[in-house]
Specification:
This protein has 211 residues and is mainly alpha-helical. It has one domain: Butyryl-CoA Dehydrogenase, subunit A, domain 3, CATH 1.20.140.10. It has a two-stranded antiparallel ribbon with strand order 1-2. Helix 1 packs parallel to helix 3 and helix 2 packs antiparallel against helix 3. The longest helix has 33 residues. The radius of gyration is 21 Å and the shape is flat. The mean pLDDT is 93.
């Protein structure tokens, strides 16, 4: 087995992505997991929902980290904008408004992840096409919100923290780089389509790891 360190994206630099070459590798049957069976329409399992749940939780974590960094920087380093007539940046009403909205959405993301987790648990206990589809939809709804929040929160970090936040010694761009790269693995525009088709036409999501 040869692992090639050929993943050179600007985000997720510590990811396991990359090329792995298997040549004459013997694997005991007991170590083989027939994951493909989870994607058969007559015997579905919530594997795709579990995979997507993990990605959504990562995005929520990136957003949370970025928001915590924003609060810390604004309170300790950022200067108040001249037109705010405030002594400190954390007193700026527009900054408070934006951060309030972002933290509210973070709470919404956590709630959606809780709902998705419960529907996945239900599908694991009793896997049917209906319960698996419900788990996929709940997870897709969470993924929509965590994707968009991760990108906005990491972008707003610099808007609210100011020019000083771009100093490379702080390495704050890692939040944006990771959010932008990680959210590309499964395009959120397709999540909207899957959710809409489910509620409008009763169409179940496709059975694969990215739906």
């Amino acid at each position: 087995m040869t692992v090639l360190n050929d993943w050179s994206a600007f985000g997720q630099r510590q990811t396991g992505s990359g090329t792995v070459l298997l040549e004459n590798v013997k694997v005991p049957l007991t170590r083989v997991i027939p994951a493909w069976k989870s994607y058969l329409h007559d015997t579905p399992r919530p594997d795709s929902a579990i995979s997507q749940f993990i990605q959504a939780a990562i995005d929520a974590g990136i957003a949370q980290g970025a928001l915590e960094e924003t609060v810390s920087f604004v309170k300790t380093r950022t200067r108040a904008w001249i037109d705010s007539h405030q002594d400190h940046a954390h007193e700026d009403p527009y900054t408070r408004h934006i951060l309030g909205g972002l933290f509210a959405r973070l709470s919404a993301c956590r709630a959606l992840l809780d709902v998705a987790g419960k529907t996945i648990d239900a599908a694991l206990i009793h896997a049917t096409p209906d319960t698996v589809a419900a788990a996929q939809i709940a997870t897709a709804e969470a993924k929509i919100f965590t994707t968009e929040l991760a990108i906005e929160a990491t972008n707003r970090l610099f808007e609210l923290a100011g020019t000083a936040a771009t100093d490379t010694r702080y390495n704050l761009d890692r939040y944006w780089r990771n959010a932008r790269t990680h959210t590309l693995h499964d395009p959120v525009r397709w999540k909207y389509a899957i959710v809409g088709d489910y509620y409008l036409n009763g169409t179940f999501p496709p059975l694969h790891a990215w739906s």
